[in-house]
Fold these 3 entries.
Entry 1:
Amino acid sequence: MKRYVQTMDLKDEPTLIARYRRAHSREEAWQEILDGIRQVGILEMEVYICGARLVMIVEAPDDFQWDDAMARLATLPRQAEWEEFVAQFQRCEANATSDEKWQMMERIFHLYE
């Protein structure tokens, strides 16, 4: 299994952060977005928050190709609308692509089995 870890900052405004949290809740998450994530082959996606900093962990099968999957995801129903919606909360350019918003992290430590 492959694991990807990315980070992004939100605008440091408590009201916006609260709205961003709600948008990602079980009750308010857009079903088309959840379906699209699974459709491109992602097995699990988690987003963690600390203040205005986000960390996203994505798990996918060994044969998963990140760039291909993200290009395909961008074409799926409501994905562009979702990106435009969440951009209001994110500290980035208004028209930034997902790859420009989320920065891939590099693993520098593990338990060296």
Entry 2:
Amino acid sequence: MSSDQALERHSWGLALSGGGARGLIHLGVLQAMDELDIRPGCIAGTSIGAIVGAFYAAGMSPAEMLKHFQKQNWIRMFRLKPSLSAFLEMKYLSDMLESEVPTDFRALQIPFCCGVTNLNKRVYEVLSSGNVHDAVRASAAIPILFAPVKIEGQSYVDGGMTNNIPSAAIRDRCQKLIAVDVNHMATPKELSNVKEIAIQLFHTAVDNNSREGRELADVLIRPLLSAHYDLLDFAKSEDLFSIGYKTAMEQLREYSLDQGEQSKKVLSAKP
């Protein structure tokens, strides 16, 4: 965040994890927050969390975002379309950002930052100034599939590779922090093939690099999901929205009843 934004300490902060199509859960969470009149004063996001966070910070409502997904327009953000560089393209995401989001972080309605992985330095970084579009595309650039995004001579890829829940980026800028983790997957009974083992290794890595982000939260929204919800399956938009909405409503009401005490009970959500 810019220096003037960092001076203000907000009541609520919101950290949104990466997780591909499961990031549609974020929309349900935002809808619940809107209905409960909980307005985040600052937002941090990674990967799909950065995409959702940027559009929300620019003024787009959860319902408007959901309509885009239901029209299957946003699916094209992740369509496997090879470019001449042998990487895939994110042209639709770039077009949507150009259409709906200001170029400069300072022009957003809500202070926003996103987590990225700097390949040159091999470290996790938080981008909060300069070109929002480049920062969001970098945060969502899944390694191998998408080309790294160049920003000021550095190559950046998906922040979820190093820190999937960017709570630390805004922890000192808010009194209460809500973190949303959309990667809490039920463990399969058996790992019988290479694909299942690879998926389990992925979730193990993400779960471990998300631990600090979960622990820093005052309210942790972390629905338990089945393997039914694939990383790139945007067709289940209504189910995922409903999971986010119902889980957030229950968690946030529980937090209120606890009169400010931390509430991190993991809920099993059913669509």
Entry 3:
Amino acid sequence: MVNIGNDWDDLLSGEWKRRYYIDLREFLKYEYQNFRVHPQMGDIFNALSLTSYKDTRAVILGQDPYHEPGQAHGLCFSVKRGVKPPPSLQNIYKELENDLGQLIPIHGDLTGWSKSGVLLLNTVLTVREGFANSHKGKGWEYLTDRVIELLNQKQTSVAFILWGANARAKTAFITNPIHKILTAAHPSPLSAHNGFFGCRHFSKTNDFLRSTGQKEIEWGAISRGS
């Protein structure tokens, strides 16, 4: 039913036959036929397509896609090139600059992080235009919780970067002691000054990966070609 194009296909093959996903699929058919829904159908699984299970060394967990036209393309906090970076992403860039001295890109496309081993996963993968959280509770959470459970089973260490209360709630699925959990306030302008700024999660992630003998994340990859 779904073709992701890498090792996630085998790992998640059983999910497409489960009742929750069959119901979710019918719900999405109705939504896409009757409303404007983001991201485009072909972009829904971009996070998994761009970052295979094997290659995942860090996870940034978002809530649901941006709900305004032209923004969402299947990666949490990321927007398509040509779209102004939203406030939360602007704050992420500020922390990246303060932490690692990275130049702030002029675009909001985080695909470079995905290709460097960062799974940019929302807990809900679709949204109706103009209505944040409109697809919450429709079944996506079962799938994305399974993704986290599978990553928890990895024999190589993963850094889980959890910003905000919704993301921190997923710590219940991260029980393997070889992994690293990094938590902070959400980068939203409403909360960034309450613990997001100064969290240094980018350098801490690389410190952790280096300590486990793994390649660091190329956080500067998004600045190329900007």
